[in-house]
Amino acid sequence: MSSSGVAAVMMALRASVFRWVSEDISSTHYLTNRFTLQTQQRCGFRKVAKKVEPKKGVAEEVEQTEILHKKGEAPAPDPPTPRIPARSFGRLVKPLVFTIGFTGCSFGGAAIWQYESLKSRVQSYFDDVKADWLEKKRPQKQAGLGKQVNQWWNSLSDGQKTVTGIIAANALVFCCWRVPSLQRTMVKYFTSNPSSKALCWPMLLSTFSHYSLFHMAANMYVLWSFSSSIVNMMGKEQFMALYLSAGVISTFVSYVSKTAMGRFGPSLGASGAIMTVLAAVCTKMPEAKLAILFLPMYPFTAGNALKAIVALDTTGLILGWRFFDHAAHLGGALFGIWYIIYGHELIWKNREPLVKMWHDFRTRGPGAGGNGSM
């Protein structure tokens, strides 16, 4: 057989092999991307399949490079590869420092706040006596909207008054999500993501952030339900320190979990902080009776409810469920349990040196009166 005949046979064989390989690759590509194609069809469009081009040989690439050099042109650069977040725990050093510092400042500020509240309460006692005497002498006004709001506010418990500000802040942030010009700012600062450029302040701000109305309503209902118990147990100052610290600590646990598993993505919501409140109440009063809103006929103890919640979030974290941020829920619950058992004795009961320093600073400051009394 001549050399031209051999070349023709080889070309035909190469074409048949290439066709079989192409058909096999295209069928495999269809099987692996079936979900994507179906999703595109549901959205009303279909991505045009890219035309497969045979790879260039080494000799052909060298020849093309030489031609470009002769023309004085540089070869085209390689296309940029998509950025994949690195699983680096070094990025968590700054959030860890922020978590420790913010928690310390929260409880320190709460101790000073309680000192100022007690100091102003002594002064307001005499003001209230004087105001009651003037109210009796003053003619009574007709009932209006302001008086009704005042009566409603006075009917609330101390815990409900305390969480009203938290609920108002969550509602304000929820409204900000509906402003198109604020979307970029909201995503950057009001969602927590360990792969984001902003790492620290979103740990706190995302605690007040909800995109879904149902998500916000459910969280605020649970917070309102447990507000009286937790504030009566701790006081409003200690409760606020616990709530704010819990939001940051639960977000940090979420950072660690996402970095360890390599599953990066934004999270938002007050669930981690509310889990701390729920766990603290259930740990302090395990025999208290609870019930689900829509199933009040099936009560259960607070201790059993806490065990079920911890077991559910642990299971979700191990199995990789991604509908909720189970790491943040579990971190918040464990922090609430730890604080009731150890944290109250370790942190809050050792606040006297700080309060004494603040008292000395206040009495020595301008306008303090010089008597050193509270």
Automatic annotation (TrEMBL):
Compartments where located: Mitochondrion inner membrane
Sorted UniProt keywords: Hydrolase, Membrane, Mitochondrion, Mitochondrion inner membrane, Transit peptide, Transmembrane, Transmembrane helix
GO CC, one annotated term: mitochondrial inner membrane
One GO term (biological process): signal peptide processing
Catalytic activity: Cleaves type-1 transmembrane domains using a catalytic dyad composed of serine and histidine that are contributed by different transmembrane domains
Membrane-topology annotation of the record: Multi-pass membrane protein
GO terms assigned for molecular function: serine-type endopeptidase activity
Pfam families: Rhomboid (PF01694)
UniProt entry tagged with the keyword Metal-binding: no
Regions that span the bilayer: 96-115, 208-227, 239-257, 330-348
EC code(s) of this entry: 3.4.21.105
Highest taxon, organism lineage: Eukaryota
Annotated PANTHER family: PRESENILINS-ASSOCIATED RHOMBOID-LIKE PROTEIN, MITOCHONDRIAL, RHOMBOID PROTEASE
Family, similarity comment: Belongs to the peptidase S54 family.
Protein name listed in UniProt: rhomboid protease
